[in-house]
Design goal:
The chain has helices at 43-51, 93-103, 108-121, 137-149, 167-186, 200-206, 224-229, 234-239, 271-276; strands at 4-12, 18-27, 32-36, 58-63, 66-67, 78-81, 155-159, 192-197, 209-214, 217-222, 246-253, 259-262, 265-268, 284-290, 295-298, 305-315, 319-326, 329-336, 349-354, 360-363. α2 (93-103) packs parallel to α4. Helices cover 25% and strands 33% of the residues.
């Protein structure tokens, strides 16, 4: 496999629109890197530039020791799995898998051995004599994966390969793909993977590291735990996590004790959090971020709580999502099922106790997380 580097990579179209703004990314040999972000953030454009399907306006793409900017896709040492699988409809699975090797003129016995090995790894031996139209979505996805795997490329590129599957099958295929990556590494054949998705659940469960993108810029690159616990800015905080982090405007007071005022309500910050915050002035305008899992229901009148009205609730079985209007802010609190009070119906008043030590404070102008500076 290979180390992949993007250096000051730019994509600008003839009409003047700049889709990718000089990004830098370093992907280690054998690493599973996920590019994630909302639609239009240029993650697929970045992947297509790596693949050679889009031209590079400026910057450098390096795979291993080679700069590949001007190389055609077939000479870059990559294999790509597309969203629609792109299987040849007139070829049976066996020929779909081996097509690249046959095109390269490999010996027949080598092709047969490679096809058998890949089919065993992906557990599709029984499908080898079927046409693509006779396959389920999950089976077709595995064949597309096998067609990439059989080439033994330097880098695997995945462009939202699970988006056409139902939720249950997506979950199953997430496990299958990450297990395959782990097995190849254990067998001494580490696979460098660039995986594009708009689904942050896929990103969090699959990636060794995750690159969060917004409008052609990289917002943060980190492992899933760091992204969740220490987001560098409000965008990452609001994008990573299910349900997403609650973000609300607040006034930070640092005179005497650290407090946050949200509308007409005030809460105190935990000493440990207050000691990390570096504010430029008293009464700074900030954004308070609290994950839904870091609220707890509390009796009315409890100190350092946020009071509001329940506007909706979602019963999930093991937990309940309470939608609460607090000073005009629509918040979500995730309450364990055993703690849920059935009297908390739409229109009722609740008090939410904040786990102050897990709160985040962001500069309102720049969006930067000032909780860890």
């Amino acid at each position: 496999m290979a180390h992949l580097q993007l250096k000051k990579l730019v994509k600008k179209y003839p009409n003047g629109f700049e889709a990718v703004h000089g990004i830098d990314l370093d992907v280690k040999d054998g690493e599973f890197m996920v590019l994630v972000g909302p639609s239009g953030c240029a993650k697929s454009t970045t992947l297509r530039m790596i693949a050679g399907l889009e031209s590079v306006t400026a910057g450098e793409i390096r795979i291993g020791e080679r700069v590949v900017n001007t190389l055609v896709p077939g000479r870059r040492g990559i294999a790509m799995v597309f969203q629609n699988y792109a299987l040849y409809p007139h070829m049976k699975v066996r020929k779909n898998l081996s097509f690249g090797l046959r095109l390269a003129g490999r010996p027949k016995d080598e092709i047969e051995a490679a096809t058998k090995e890949v089919a065993e790894i992906l557990e599709i031996e029984a499908l080898l004599d079927r046409l693509p139209k006779e396959l389920s979505g999950g089976q077709a996805q595995r064949v597309a994966l096998g067609r990439a795997l059989i080439k033994k490329p330097e880098v695997f590129l995945f462009d939202e390969p699970l988006s056409n599957l139902d939720a249950k099958l997506r979950a199953s295929m997430r496990v299958r793909i990450t297990d395959l990556h782990r097995r190849l590494k254990e067998e001494g054949r580490p696979a460098t993977v660039i995986y594009v998705t708009h689904d942050q659940t896929e990103a969090m469960t699959m990636g060794d590291r995750i690159c969060v993108m917004k409008e052609g810029h990289i917002m943060q690159v980190a492992d899933p735990v760091t992204l969740y616990d220490k987001p560098e800015n409000a965008f990452v905080a609001g994008f990573i996590g299910t349900p997403e982090m609650n973000l609300m405007n607040a006034q930070l007071s640092i005179a005497g004790s650290h407090t946050l005022k949200i509308g007409n309500q005030t809460i105190s910050l935990a000493d440990e959090l207050a000691s990390r915050i570096k504010a430029s002035a008293d009464d700074s305008e900030v954004i308070l971020g609290i994950r839904p899992q870091h609220f707890h229901l509390a009796p009315e009148g409890t100190a350092d709580t946020l009071s509001g009205e329940v506007t909706a609730l979602e019963f999930m079985g093991h937990e309940v999502y309470l939608h609460v209007n607090v000073e005009g802010n629509s918040l979500i609190a995730v309450i364990p099922g055993e703690e849920y009070d059935p009297t908390n119906v739409r229109g009722s008043k609740v008090c939410l106790k904040v786990n102050e030590s897990r709160a985040h404070v962001f500069d309102r102008e720049s969006g930067k997380n000032i909780s860890f500076t």
